[in-house]
Design a protein that fits this description.
Order of helices and strands of chain A: HEEEHEEEEHEEEEEEEEEEEEEEEEE
Strand order of the largest sheet of chain A: 3-4-5-6-7-8-9-11-12-16-17-18-21-22-23-24
Oligomer: homotrimer
Structural class of chain A: mainly beta
Radius of gyration of chain A: 23 Å
Distance between the termini of chain A: 29 Å
CATH class of chain A: Mainly Beta
Shape of chain A: globular
Amino acid sequence: MKSVVNLVLLVGLSAVTLAADKDLKVGWADKVVIASEDGTIRLEIGGRIHNDWAFMGSDQAIQDPFGNLEDGVEFRRARIHIGGELYRHTEFRIQYDFSSGEAEARDVYLGFKDIPVLGGVRIGQFKEPFGLEELTSSNDIPFMERSLMNALAPSRQTGIMLHNSGAGDALNWAGGVFRESDDTGTGTGDNNYSLTGRISGSPWYADEGRRLLHLGFSASYRSVDDQVVRFSTRPEAHLAPTFLDTGLIGADSYQLQGVEGAVQLGSFSLQSELSRASVDRLAGSGADFQGFYLQGSFVLTGEHRSYKRSSGAFGTVKPRNNFMNGSGGLGAWETSIRFSRLDLNDQEIVGGIQEDITLGLNWYLHPNLRIMWNYVHADLESVGDADIFQMRFQVNF
Amino acid sequence: MKSVVNLVLLVGLSAVTLAADKDLKVGWADKVVIASEDGTIRLEIGGRIHNDWAFMGSDQAIQDPFGNLEDGVEFRRARIHIGGELYRHTEFRIQYDFSSGEAEARDVYLGFKDIPVLGGVRIGQFKEPFGLEELTSSNDIPFMERSLMNALAPSRQTGIMLHNSGAGDALNWAGGVFRESDDTGTGTGDNNYSLTGRISGSPWYADEGRRLLHLGFSASYRSVDDQVVRFSTRPEAHLAPTFLDTGLIGADSYQLQGVEGAVQLGSFSLQSELSRASVDRLAGSGADFQGFYLQGSFVLTGEHRSYKRSSGAFGTVKPRNNFMNGSGGLGAWETSIRFSRLDLNDQEIVGGIQEDITLGLNWYLHPNLRIMWNYVHADLESVGDADIFQMRFQVNF
Amino acid sequence: MKSVVNLVLLVGLSAVTLAADKDLKVGWADKVVIASEDGTIRLEIGGRIHNDWAFMGSDQAIQDPFGNLEDGVEFRRARIHIGGELYRHTEFRIQYDFSSGEAEARDVYLGFKDIPVLGGVRIGQFKEPFGLEELTSSNDIPFMERSLMNALAPSRQTGIMLHNSGAGDALNWAGGVFRESDDTGTGTGDNNYSLTGRISGSPWYADEGRRLLHLGFSASYRSVDDQVVRFSTRPEAHLAPTFLDTGLIGADSYQLQGVEGAVQLGSFSLQSELSRASVDRLAGSGADFQGFYLQGSFVLTGEHRSYKRSSGAFGTVKPRNNFMNGSGGLGAWETSIRFSRLDLNDQEIVGGIQEDITLGLNWYLHPNLRIMWNYVHADLESVGDADIFQMRFQVNF
């Protein structure tokens, strides 16, 4: 086949010589995969749309400080990515989110894979290795939003990370040095750096992941260049205003710790995390904030949440019977419940304390389409309550 | 072939298992189409560039309020999209326009097709079903800009729409509920909703669309959450300033109605629309604004405007003889003329009245390239006149 | 094969008829190339990431006016493009850079190729034909940043250009009329135009470009619509502040001239340019600014800088032995050194005078991955010195 492609390109030839070195084959594996037969080139092109609709109500005690909670629609995420592996040992990914009107860098990195001593190395902007919920893709978490506790997770920053992904089996580790960077991946400051690491694993793993026990621990030391740190979060609804907020805290550095665990028994899974931030303040004694959540998920139609043993995170629920492809089923249906709590009060800092209960119903029509319904009851301590009903139409590939 | 692809992907295998479920074939159908042999997956990747050059002049009466009308260049549109159909019955499209420097959502939706009772359902941001000119793609309209009347069309908002597209033949219908949303697809407000519907059809349709009669009617009821509504437009030239503008009008709601008709007799087509907005004002009696246009197009080289019977809108002119592909012709040449009028004066509101005459010449070099020349004579009642010459270099695929 | 593709598309058929006219083949030629067998359609999809890390220091004399030079990271470039040739004689390219958070137009144009009398014509936004360093891709220049002198190059603007690219061999020419346009490609003003041309060639060219002599001359006349012109630059480090800056200079027009030369003797190459700007000021006599650089590059592993004879610019260094693909080598290693000088002082204008020495080390792991280390010593005359160490992780395809 090679000769044919070369011929084609020579006919259409411009000044730039374009002889294709390799034929590429295009395939569908729940996304578009383009690969050479010798396995040296593998590319993916994909994207996601999360279209959210929210309906909210609250008592007067919430409206006084936060205003009327208005109904709304938005694209919570609208991303396009291109990435893959080049010559087996290097990888890259360019992923931008356009939902805000800005071009916001998400996973934008390059890396090395299967390097003899180091394992894997990744450079650029990507998620710091911290927390099971954070490291599970927004396409795959069983609720529309991550828990209140996620306010304490560092998420994506620009850095260099070593990891054993790909080689990992029962035990995963990853650790790196990062600079806190904005949505364009820019971070400045002589004193702007963080050290973050995570160890996780599945000591019990049976039946190809239908039954497993997951445990993990994450820690981060974070130097603060501009000498202020702030924690805040919305009530697990992105169209709602920010309820919890410490405001700016003068600090030299802070530390994060997180413990995570999950059990899966077929269609039933239980997952919990506990995180804590300890701030070394410039004035006064240290301030500590903590959050946790406990969530359960049950897939009514018998499937289970997939689990990526190599990275220590959950994937999606793959529907078995899928009326979209004519197999006579109605996709997969999952119910979920979560209790989460975040305490941003300490010393004289009053960021607030909130407890949320979320009920979820998820319909996986086929591997690329999910419809979600979430009801969130948010209880903001010493203030009041809010009730939010929201739904998401999700395409990802 | 399947086994080969699987093999390839297993060789280049990372932690994420990547066995291609299906081979995809890549083809060219005036754009890139990627599809599986069983027809369950079909994807498109495409884009458009509209590069505009304008030269303007006006009398002093126009310059006094609007300043000197300066010549200029711009990308009127610069879009990339990816979309398609997954498992036959679902569709999606992610289309962003980058021409303004912002990432502006255009068609960003998912949907269901050929559903037994409902027909088609579409969710996300897309054009409300209102008006023939609005629903004809900017790649295909015979002038560089839509008419003055288009100031009264709702265009793209976020919503949920039912439609019979795909099943439609002589008669099309579509109707949905929408929230007015900005260029990111975000729309908030408890009272922000619209109901919009359109019925259109081609009672006479012969010779594969070379000869036809098109008729349609659209209506919209629009609740206004922030209690202000505004209509404004430029003089059918995007690099010119806004001439007509009602300013903010206090209102609870407004209604839109539109009537459309077109006749095509081979290379000759005539098209007209009449739209009206009725605003329920907070104070004072209701205010009504109306616009209309009448346009004729003649394809000198014998081709005709294509017509999409399933959606009740026109497509492009497909050049028969195309010197680009060596068939000895010089592409298709089309001349066009339009008269349009918009009246934004009513009660004490003085948005202005304008009448435009536009002459157009369009060269379709091949199905993906069009060069346009437009001369617009704009007559702003009680103010003055402006003359605009503009050209567009258009690539779309 | 054609019938199979048609069949597929008819099965998945929507209202829009989608019969693929041609099969397309996908290949890898250091990037993804999609082409039809008859050579009439050729498309490319690609992108680049430049992830920069900088560490800076300076004496107090620099910190007084410019503040502390802070370390930092950023995506210097993050681009995606799609482009190609349609029906042999037309070309297009849509390239956007997202690194700033804005969608910034880079190469966004369409054009005609191999036209009988005119040669090639290009319309839209692209680089004005001025200067060897400017016209060499940022993927390929042997330093992380272009020289100080580049402050005098016009770079990308919106225009129409004639050129002999594709036909050129020993001699290249290009010339066009441009409007100065912003990062969205928008440029307004009745008096906003430039005329720019370049003649370059390789009178001596041997051994398939391993040995060559390159010479070139560029000139530009630039009318200034808003009657101000400004030249400024950072010290060859994008994360550093702007050191040289003329401020706004009242002017009707200015001219640019540039002379360029390069010699390549296998792995060793020497390159130099001299540019000059002459400003016709509104008040006072004309002001002249000039810059130049001299750079040498030596590829330790024996490869050479590729040279594009058709466009008169250098390409990348292609690594021969590439440990990534198992051929037993360690890629290509290149060392480089550059001296550059820019003088923005004239008459009463004090934009500053700077001399930089840059040392570079570049590792080309494979054709799509480059890691760069640069040390810049910047000497700002009458102010002070700064030392910058920076590295880049680059993926491009």
